[in-house]
């Protein structure tokens, strides 16, 4: 169920250039049903910035009632959020959207988790849940440069992790597709989240595979009421559009037109 | 009698608070969060004769204490709204105000005639002020003669009272209000959004794919208050005021300048519980102001 919760900031720190790790505690944690869901965060109680910020959930700790958000402070709203300190409370709405299906991959099978930039965070909780289930996870993570790479060690602790950077300062030079070119394709499922060109490339490269894609779009309400984040579907006969916030953000590969 | 109850043409309101059209869909999303029967009324999303997909994305951009939107009247069309959306809302004890949109008079008339027969539709809101569609909408809302004629045409076929939603993007909103009054309108809803533009810092181009969008949110409230003040003194029509309402004080302000009820728009996106929160805080506000019934606040600004 979607609830509004004043969550307490347990920890808040910068972990890479402009990338922040925010741990929040509250009962909203208990409502989360799948990795890849997101929360809608009001960065302050003032009217400016007005709208909430959709941020994916990178880690869920049910015992401690804590969630971890990883976000990039590159705008006004996330800039304000980055200055909030431990002990503060934040107005959080969630969990929102439908996440990645972990049931799509059986124990013993291999899953490729492919992320780009600030699309990487939800793959962490996904990998935690898949590996706990006995799925072998291979992570292929793309970043701009070495100084914005985050959670490399955390991903490595869960499975093979390949890093690509556009400028080559860390891992393979280039995009995640360059890493994918050199990996076997005997995996069962792919899960991906990142910028649109990356999603397109991944979906094309693995067109014959079962896959799940998490999309991002400018949102208003986050609950499906405002029609800001609609995307056209590929098969127009069934339905002509989907709302990223409430029908997604995760869709089976091929459903959304990109 | 409840201290918050209000009666307007076609509408017996438990309280004068309702979500504004376009900010509440057809209620389903909010129905999952709270009991919609708490609301005074619901203004459903604009309905056109045919299905409309709306504008390309990005459709929204945030601004200082506000936002721009150019959704483009996306809706499933009259047939589906009549067959699915309105019947779904019948589970709630709440009057529906159906927002009617079109490109030409015949469209408006067709939608108004049909949708006004739905059992839970107690009033129409004639949308002559959407700034985000290429034809129709705004043209009807900027020329007084056209607005009067359209109002009269819709009035002639509607089974329920007709409110006309005015655009702030005009030289004289009073002239528009008088025109729709002359056309037989039963009430006025105001204001729709103000046309604006926000640029991408890197490219210098508009962020919204439609280039321009309608500005809403707390940023527009002073404009809305001024316009309601003017119109309420120039016509005898009841006004449902809106523009940047986020709390009970905003409601008091709109009533003070002459509105009889208040719609909440953008704030639903910020806090989906804003309408029940405002309703629950209104009585305390009346106590604070030493007022027995909320209707005593209507037009007090003009009485001073």
Automatic annotation (TrEMBL), chain A:
Keyword terms of this UniProt record: 2Fe-2S, Electron transport, FAD, Flavoprotein, Iron, Iron-sulfur, Metal-binding, Pyrimidine biosynthesis, Transport
Function summary: Responsible for channeling the electrons from the oxidation of dihydroorotate from the FMN redox center in the PyrD type B subunit to the ultimate electron acceptor NAD(+).
GO molecular function (one): metal ion binding
Domain FAD-binding FR-type: 2-102
CDD domains: DHOD_e_trans
HAMAP family, per the entry: DHODB_Fe_S_bind
Protein's GO biological process: 'de novo' UMP biosynthetic process
Gene (name only): pyrK
SUBUNIT field: Heterotetramer of 2 PyrK and 2 PyrD type B subunits.
Pathways involved: Pyrimidine metabolism; UMP biosynthesis via de novo pathway; orotate from (S)-dihydroorotate (NAD(+) route): step 1/1
Positions annotated to bind [2Fe-2S] cluster: 221, 226, 229, 245
Cofactor note: Binds 1 [2Fe-2S] cluster per subunit. Binds 1 FAD per subunit.
Binding site for FAD: 53-56, 70-72, 77-78
Gene3D superfamilies: Dihydroorotate dehydrogenase, electron transfer subunit, Nucleotide-binding domain of ferredoxin-NADP reductase (FNR) module, Translation factors
Pfam families: DHODB_Fe-S_bind, NAD_binding_1
The protein's name: Dihydroorotate dehydrogenase B (NAD(+)), electron transfer subunit
Organism: Savagea serpentis
Iron-sulfur as UniProt keyword: yes
Cofactor: [2Fe-2S] cluster; FAD
Entry similarity comment: Belongs to the PyrK family.
UniProt-listed NCBIfam families: PRK00054.1-2, PRK00054.1-4
From TrEMBL, chain B:
Domain (Dihydroorotate dehydrogenase catalytic): residue spans on this chain: 4-286
Substrates-to-products reaction catalysed: (S)-dihydroorotate + NAD(+) = orotate + NADH + H(+); (S)-dihydroorotate + A = orotate + AH2
Cellular compartments per GO CC: cytoplasm
Cofactor: how bound: Binds 1 FMN per subunit.
PROSITE patterns for the chain: DHODEHASE_1, DHODEHASE_2
Residues that, per the record, bind FMN: 21, 45-46, 99, 127, 165, 191, 217, 243-244, 265-266
GO biological process, one term: 'de novo' UMP biosynthetic process
Superkingdom of source: Bacteria
Record CDD domains: DHOD_1B_like
Active site: 130 (nucleophile)
Name of one Pfam family that matches: DHO_dh
Chief localization: cytoplasm
Cofactor: FMN
InterPro entries reported in the protein's UniProt record: Aldolase_TIM, DHO_dehydrogenase, DHOD_1B, Dihydroorotate_DH_1, Dihydroorotate_DH_1_2, Dihydroorotate_DH_cat, Dihydroorotate_DH_CS, Dihydroorotate_DH_I
Major enzyme class: oxidoreductase
Ranges in a coiled coil: none
Keywords, comma-separated and alphabetical: Cytoplasm, Flavoprotein, FMN, NAD, Oxidoreductase, Pyrimidine biosynthesis
Enzyme Commission designation: 1.3.-.-
Pathway: Pyrimidine metabolism; UMP biosynthesis via de novo pathway; orotate from (S)-dihydroorotate (NAD(+) route): step 1/1
Subunit-level organization: Heterotetramer of 2 PyrK and 2 PyrD type B subunits.
Purpose: Catalyzes the conversion of dihydroorotate to orotate with NAD(+) as electron acceptor.
Matching HAMAP family: DHO_dh_type1
The family this protein is said to belong to: Belongs to the dihydroorotate dehydrogenase family. Type 1 subfamily.
Protein name: Dihydroorotate dehydrogenase
Organism the protein comes from: Savagea serpentis
Gene name linked to the record: pyrD
